[in-house]
Amino acid sequence: MIQPIPAIDIIDGKCVRLTKGDYDSQTTYAVSPLDVAKEVEDCGYKRLHLVDLDGARSKGVVNLGVLKEITSTTGLEVDFGGGIKSDADIKAVFDNGARWATVGSVAVANPEMFDRWLETYSADRIILGADVDNGRVCINGWKEASRQMLIPFIESYYEKGVRHVLCTDISRDGMLQGTSVDTYCEIMARFPDLKLIASGGVGSADDIKKLDEAGIPAVVFGKAVYEGRINLRELAATYGLYLKSENN
After folding, report:
1. Strand pairing partners for 103?
2. What does the pLDDT look like over 70-109, one tens digit per residue?
3. Is the pTM of this model over 0.85?
4. 158, 137, 154: which is closest to 146 by C-alpha?
5. Pick the catalytic residue: 52, 131, 133, 212?
6. Distance between CA 198 and CA 128 in Å, rounded?
7. Whether 89 is catalytic
8. Can 182 be counted among the known catalytic residues?
């Protein structure tokens, strides 16, 4: 059964969502990241995907304070991405409570550093970020298309032991019009034991159901919750997550 993972994207310490990674399309929501995280936990989820959008387009991680606040206040296991571009960045992310670090730009631009992180922290704690547009992997907050093609990119790190991959279809991100099921199925056909996390385009619980039926291990979603298209508690009940008693 698929694992639904709620996501929080952050700019200036606030919950936001972009459309197709365009920072000019930013929508800011009047809820704090911590309040959203508490609601996620209260609905029975064990894991949270936290994205530092400030960090993604800068030279390093920016919103460590939000990460620390969530990990010190809740029991959620957090995978954190955005702006992890140096040894100091990834150390700070883990020091501030992240269970996993999602890394994309460094894996493309500095594979030697990424390899060193795999050795230092283990492949169990590193998630390979594969943000794709028209088949090409994009970096630096999705602003720059690399020469790396999706499947060969994943394969190069799969051979080094990577098993956690977060793949975002940029063209669908924030559109709420469905996910790239065919793309994720292609990945799983090539790498059957991959712990793939699908991302981009989830607009309803039905989109998650389609991924589940296709055998995709996990999916992140966020905007659909803010826009009232997905009920966190109902989704948790559907996928067998533990729900706290209403009386507790």
Report:
1. 128
2. 999 999 999 999 999 999 999 999 999 999 999 999 999 9
3. yes
4. 137
5. 131
6. 12
7. no
8. no
